[in-house]
Structure prediction request, 368 residues.
Amino acid sequence: MNMDINIIIIANYILLGLIAFIIIFIFSRRILFFPFQLWFFHRKEYYKDIAKYLIDENHDNSRLIKFLLNIKNPINKLALGEVLLEKIDTLNGDKKKFLIQLYEKSGIVDWRIRQLESVNTWKRRIAADILGKSYSRKAVTPLIISLRDKDEDVRLIAAKALGKLKVKGAIEYIISLFKDFPEEKCPIVADILIDYGEEAVPSITKALDSIDLKTRFWSVRALSEINIINEKFNYKTLEEKLLELLEDEDDRVRAYGVVSLAKIGSQDKVGSILKLLKDRSEIVRSKAAIALGILRNSEAIETLIESLSDRCWDVNYASSKALMEFSGQVEDRLKENLKNPKNIVRKRCKEILEEILLQKKLGEDDLA
Prediction:
């Protein structure tokens, strides 16, 4: 019995000793690094003042630039680099280009590029992130190579960096990440493509043929968020591929395919879209209603009114929102359906009529 108690006491002392060691280690580490942190923040404030002076075009900055380019101390160089990145992100035009060139000449870009080959994963992640923020064109090729890094997060950060740099040649590499990445990270890649805007459309169009489901879906998902306003863009190939996607086995692909088809203004394809209001999938029916609202083609009015009785809330709500786009064209038909035997139809018709009335009133107030 006494022996058991002694073992428990010894175990408690060991545990307390371990906790004390961890606490001492954490605080001693902070105390040890505090002078360096203090130095870093002090130098950072100093370089902020210099940066303000640098971007003032009324001064001859040649001697000051020479001084900055000769900084050797690592902490000073890191402080300068952080200040320049902050300024680069807030400026435009020639001043931005000037600071980007200064950042490159300081040697920090070359140092970060070398870090992309580090065995330390965190160093590679940080390097990829900072290279994107630097807007340096020197970083483009190393970042494209990093899209094949063994670490998933390095690949993702490199893709973000290339998107920030708007590297057109990297778009197809970025699209290829859909196949490799888990589903939860694909939305981030899609957002990168959306940020590219119309520049990404030709590469996305090619990706719509992919045999990989994730690539097809996330490509069309990104496409549905891109506004294609360039009149010179050739819609024919894209339209043909989107029509094929309306027959895709995956519900999500059909759903975002129909929205994309509407966004490129395919008025003559209303019949194909109307069929999807009878699709087995709720998300497809809902997105088809949204697509018809985008196109505002009067051929869709009757079918949209029928869809107000859809058993799925998302579908009948999307149909009601689409009908609001037709305003005066639908008022009589909506009033007729205020006596519809289905409660949801009566409810939706009342909501649409109230919204149309409100819009008219607001319009009259604006004219007054």
About this structure: DSSP finds 20 helices and no strands in the chain. The CA atoms of residues 9 and 15 lie 10 Å apart.
